[in-house]
Design brief:
By secondary structure, the chain is of the alpha+beta class. Helix content is 51%, strand content 18%. The chain is built from 9 helices and 8 strands. Strands 5-4-3-8-7-6 form a 6-stranded antiparallel β-sheet. A hairpin with a 2-residue loop joins strand 6 and strand 7. It is globular and about 55 Å long.
């Protein structure tokens, strides 16, 4: 399950202090939309940690102000200071500061949705999502929202350029979690990598009548980011790719160049 430790996060040789920190972070990761209240048993199941360990860690996180105990539900929820961490991240993100104005300009000029995301394990996390669809969107995407790497153009574009060891580790996890779908997914992921190599972007349609294109963004800070455009449409994926591919690549180029200049000035 999404919050459970796997080959992407288990690192042998960590000191006890670091191991405790890592386990505490695993508990915080277990909270997702739809899972706002979790008890010690829920957290143990989601993280794979012993209940005694979870109990000690939740007490510590409550004491640190990162979790709140709700007596009526006998469960924990994330505390308000967690929100300040995400705000600090967004406020200090140079790539977001550079990219957001260009993303908004493209969204408004083409009446499409434009997003910026980064990888986290076998998911992609939106840093920004500007919704300007031609039709009513079938889902609402906001900053901080996660989408599956295996199914989306965002994730497949990242996998196309990920370091080999990292890519292999992620694919092993995906193959385990999506065993029945894996043969088809593996082919689609390989096809997306070929698209990125030859066209600079890949396309996917994992939601009904929603087509998305995504392209890796050349990084000025060594981190991995992906830009995407999407819209709700009955048009085939190939038609949307021909219509919006050049605009997406131009956005990536514009953001990468401005970001590099911004980094040189600092």
């Amino acid at each position: 399950m999404p919050g459970q430790p796997d080959t992407l996060t288990d690192k042998p040789g960590l000191s006890p202090a670091n191991r405790s920190l890592e386990r505490g972070i695993e508990l915080l990761r277990a909270f997702r939309p739809g899972s706002e209240l979790l008890g010690n048993g829920d957290l143990a199941e989601r993280t794979g940690l012993p209940k005694a360990t979870v109990s000690r860690l939740t007490q510590t996180l409550v004491g640190c102000g990162l979790l709140q105990w709700e007596a009526a539900s006998k469960a924990y929820r994330l505390a308000p200071p967690v929100l300040s961490l995400s705000h600090a991240m967004r406020a200090g993100s140079r790539v977001l500061a550079v990219a957001a104005p260009h993303m908004r300009a493209l969204a408004e000029s083409r009446r499409i949705n434009v997003g910026l995301a980064a990888p986290d394990r076998d998911e992609m996390v939106y840093l920004e999502s500007i919704r300007y669809a031609r039709r009513v969107a079938l889902r609402h995407v906001v900053s901080g929202q996660r989408v599956p790497m295996a199914l989306t153009s965002l994730g497949r574009a990242y996998l196309a350029v990920a370091p080999t060891a990292r890519r292999r580790a992620i694919l092993r996890v995906i193959a385990q979690r999506r065993a029945e779908q894996w043969p088809a997914l593996s082919r689609e992921i390989d096809e997306a990598a070929a698209q990125v190599k030859h066209r600079g972007f890949c396309a996917a349609s994992w939601q009904p009548e929603v087509v998305a294109l995504a392209a890796p963004l050349a990084s000025a800070d060594g981190a991995a980011y992906v830009l995407n455009v999407s819209l709700s449409t009955p048009l085939p994926v190939e038609v949307v790719a021909d219509e919006l591919g050049e605009a997406l690549l131009a956005l990536c180029d514009r953001v990468a160049r401005e970001w590099a200049l911004d980094s040189q000035r600092r």
